[in-house]
Write a structure and sequence with these properties.
The protein is α+β, with helices and mostly antiparallel strands and about 140 residues long. Helices cover about 40% and strands about 20% of the residues. The protein has a four-stranded mixed beta sheet with strand order 5-6-7-8, sandwiched between helices. Strands 1-4 form a two-stranded antiparallel ribbon. Strands 2-3 form a two-stranded antiparallel sheet.
């Protein structure tokens, strides 16, 4: 989440058995500076996330974005043996296309069972909500100082 690159944030939400586990949510203040760059910010967040040995690794990592974002995550996976058992998928907003690691063509959410499609959208929306809440807090603090 960012507005003109100011106070950029990222988020990690955790769902277990289809339910949010808010105790495991994490927020990230983006440290890179300069012009907003979605893939660089994503790389920073994922890199920082996997450095935390105390956080269990996910079975599935859902990335917000399309093929470019998926490729960033897959490159990090290739560089980190710890992620070898994590399946990486990304959700592109434009057509609600799901890019799945190892599949050449995206899957449209509308072609998935509704329960799965709804869960994927819920996870994406919760990640957006959590990141935006943190972004607004940082922006307000910055404005007050």
């Amino acid at each position: 989440s960012n507005i003109q690159g100011q106070e950029a944030t990222g988020s990690m939400v955790v769902f277990e058995n289809g339910q949010p586990n808010k105790n495991k949510y994490r927020k990230f203040k983006i440290k890179i500076t300069g012009k907003p760059n979605d893939t660089a910010m994503l790389k920073e967040v994922i890199s920082r996330r996997i450095r935390h040995k105390e956080w269990p690794l996910p079975q599935i990592m859902l990335i917000d974005g399309g093929i470019g974002q998926l490729n960033v995550a897959l490159k990090l996976k290739a560089e980190n043996e710890k992620l070898k058992n994590t399946k990486i998928i990304s959700l592109a907003k434009k057509n609600n296309e799901l890019f799945v690691e190892g599949k050449a063509q995206p899957v449209l959410l509308k072609n998935l069972p509704q329960k799965i499609s709804n869960l994927i959208l819920q996870i994406r929306d919760e990640a957006h909500r959590f990141a935006l809440t943190y972004h607004k807090k940082l922006r307000n603090n910055s404005f007050l100082n």
